[in-house]
Amino acid sequence: MDRSMVLAAAGLVLSAQAATALERVVFGTNWLPQAEHGGFYQSVADGTYAECGLEVEIVPGGPQVNNRALMMADRIQFHMGGDLLQAFSAVEENIPIVAVMATFQKHPQVIISHPGEADTWEELRDLTLLIGDNGFASYYQWMIAAWGFTAEQREVYTFNPAPFLANPRMGMQGFLSSEPFAIEKEAGFAPNVFLIADHGYSTYATTVETMRDTIENRPEVVRCFVEGSILGWYNYLYGDNAAANELILAANAEMTQDKIDFAIDKMISEGIVDSGDALTYGIGVITEAQVEDFFDKMVEAGVVDGDVDWRQAFTTEFVGKGLGMELRPD
What we know:
D-Maltodextrin-Binding Protein, domain 2; five-stranded mixed beta sheet
């Protein structure tokens, strides 16, 4: 065998060893694939996770899927949480789940109104508001405590916008890149959109959760996944995201490129991912001060028991180190 064949054979062996060295982990999202999951798909598509040793499979969530329960059964290793209320609840129930990254610095929950009917946040108090049961039990209780909204002005939102469209004196809940997009597309007008985070609802959202046991026994896996995700989000928002979008479109038959484009634009313009402390410490950052601020608000609103040990709900070990900040455009 000549020297070139020996080198080629050695290269194949090394490639095979590198491939088998990747540790497989599963990440369960909280909904069907969409731009709001883009940074994770980015790091699958461009090999960022693989570079630090992980083969990551993303499995979608949805109305009939409980990926958090699957994580507790070790069928998945990471889970996309909602906001900090779920993390506080886990502590209260003695479930050893920990938030290790905060993808969204702002919660994308919005309240929507017709232009000319309620053009300021304060004027929303004069409308009938369509709010779902989960929202009524959480952020709407804060709206009552902090801003003087009332239980009487709330009607149950059944995720059908028809009553809102038919009645200008009605507002409704939504997500930043969902209901506003649908209204513009189907009803032909741009509604007023009020991001509750801009009015003091200070929770993180779209957290990354894992089991405390994983943090203690496999910290290098957690670090690789978190740091890979941080880089993925910088590249998705500010770089070439075509390959990630192809994965999203292939995995969700109901997704369209124009909806992806709308969502990316809103995430950037409203600072959903990259704002606040993330501008100083990097995407994904969690600070004790912000968690405490939100916890205190939820206790005051009667949503959370004040005896919950909120510090057990998260760790700052893997974030806040400025990773990837050079990828943000000047």
